């Protein structure tokens, strides 16, 4: 099925747009994540820049039709660079009343609202808390171009000849919705058709049904008189190269596997399933032919301690979890820190405390990761800025771990983990190598497990190496010999030494850069997944003539060496965070800078407009 | 690579580290350490291939006193650490040293899972029925009514039977010995070392400071003969100084003590079968507790199953055979890609 790109074809107008935001929403069984992912794929393959925001309920299957069970997937696709899935929605596809109710507020005035009219019947309306059918109330939806499409019955009719059960037939309605939206935005459905054929290869009747539903939706767009315009968004002008779409979790898995390959080492992953980190385990489990060993442990503590064991035995070892799981891993991280063993712990942050908001994003584990271990236990912290950046930061984390013989924390978040964007496939030969050296016995001198190199790193010996037998452990050790030593002076010495080793990493990481003027009225500092919204807000503010710059920090401990001086170049500092001000406290404490916060803890990413508004407010109040 | 090079002949001294041993005088741990140093040189494994991993507690200082690779880890987690070591490097012989508090309280979870997975590790549980390092609180194996600092009126906890737990987790090797029963302990450690798969050994260990004599019934000459049955595969369960008593199943299939002679012959007794896939016999033996019954010593169960570490590497190998050695370029370019 090729798109018709002739203005006036079938009497329809084709309108050119720069960027579009679409949100698919429906019941968690309606296949909205699939619809969104497929739309993202076809847009990416077409050459648009894309950014996505999946949003799912915490329950696997909340009662069908209820507000708690609404699942959504938002995608922004554009003919220029974009950094967020967008603030306002241009086209909202709502598969039932609950989806409409929970999402319509984000649809912009004049936007297109496509609803599955069949789902707006009595029981669904009452489950969503509607007293009357909003589709009959012209006033409530007057601000939008409403397309009432009986998707369930049209889908049923489209697949009627295949002899599916009514239930199976109706399940294809997400493909009908996709087809309609594909027509609306002139998408080539070929990648989705190929995907369906592969995915359901063993169930040919489902291949037929889904393709028929997809085509029916597309044809409905062509023939219906209700929709008179469709839209075109040209490919984006991205740097030349080969691209694919990645989510943050995929990119982390790719980054770790790449680092292991570069280092010529086996990768060991010990993990325990937890939202939203599980996909890292899933991705790595598929890659056993890359010399990857994955271990699904019995709990989070076994996950981290197995990783400690694997690191001791010489593997590049990693674990990933989310807030509550990281809390459980604290003691294991402390063990790795005092034994000075290299490993990486990924925290895909979500709303807390405790179980909190398991499927929603937040940045509130910074304090826990910076400070949350017993004793004086600094650990390096890095934080990717976007899904694609996870590829590089995964390698950076492992590089720091092995070069400095230390556990390293990598802070991702739900938004980065599940969000997707185009990733320029790297030239493997251009990647920075990761050097690993394992100590071997030289001469007759006894082996000293805590003898240090110029980076204050101790040797990494693989058990099985003759003559280097040694013991490590959680009890305080003497430097050089590694013998147990409780003396007060020794503990002070070793505590300082470990802290200096971590602080010294600052000499081996890039200096902090800014986007925008090198001095001025306002510096906006961000970290992690807020990168896109903050970057766009600052860019737009600069275009509006404001004196504002943006520093996005990817190395959180230690900070880049020049950060303190850099902050002093601006009159004011704003730190937007999806927490109540954790980086702000650390920046204030470290640099005595009078930083102001913009803080949101709603389980949702920043809107560009929220950040822009705050920038304007701070500059205006001088 | 490993052929042709003759292995150095090792002695117990080769396994002694230069660290001062800081257990209390007359602690049962000394004997276990000594037997371990005796057994390891007999295995034909180079010294650098041994790794000792422990948790927290008196017994868990053990790795410091062995001149092998070792890790004194954190409370209860040694089985998980050791799983990581073994998976990263399956050529190592990995021993887990743990106590009753370490592996049955805080580490109960890992204890159970390492055994059910059949990771090729040797788990030695020093059971002294007390918390020694924290100075004398009751442990998960202390009998009900045990009076300690935290249970001045006697503990009301029902104790756990380590062997029952291990057999319940389908340990492929489960055994018991006593710290001072030197020959027996040596033979059990040796069999554990040679077992392919998780080997679990409970050692009755005397804490002469906080729980002195708890196992006198099983260790003291003159007493133990009447209180202990030494298990031998294929042999009837006979005990007693005069070897005149045995164990028979009664009409409810429960074990009972009978005297030999007077109409009861060896053939009427229960015969030990450590290789039985059925776990009933091992459970039944584990349920025999002093003072109601003589307690079995030796190997309760020894069966061979594929190990977890082998299974993990079999998957790595078959995935590599199926898909070829991982190629990053190919990986990155799978699925929908496009060129700008």
TrEMBL record, chain A:
One of its GO terms (biological process) is response to oxidative stress. Residues 29-219 form the Pyruvate/ketoisovalerate oxidoreductase catalytic domain. This is 2-oxoglutarate oxidoreductase subunit KorA. Residues 262-479 form the Pyruvate flavodoxin/ferredoxin oxidoreductase pyrimidine binding domain. GO terms for molecular function: oxidoreductase activity, acting on the aldehyde or oxo group of donors. Gene3D superfamilies: 3.40.50.920, 3.40.50.970, Pyruvate-ferredoxin oxidoreductase, PFOR, domain III (3.40.920.10). It is an enzyme of class 1 (oxidoreductase). Its EC number is 1.2.-.-. Keywords: Oxidoreductase. The gene is korA.
UniProtKB/TrEMBL annotation, chain B:
Gene3D superfamilies: 3.40.50.970. Residues 56-203 form the Thiamine pyrophosphate enzyme TPP-binding domain. Keywords: Oxidoreductase. One of its GO terms (biological process) is small molecule metabolic process. Its EC number is 1.2.-.-. Transmembrane segments: none annotated. The keyword tRNA processing does not apply. GO terms for molecular function: oxidoreductase activity, acting on the aldehyde or oxo group of donors, iron-sulfur protein as acceptor; thiamine pyrophosphate binding. The keyword Signal does not apply. This is 2-oxoglutarate oxidoreductase subunit KorB.
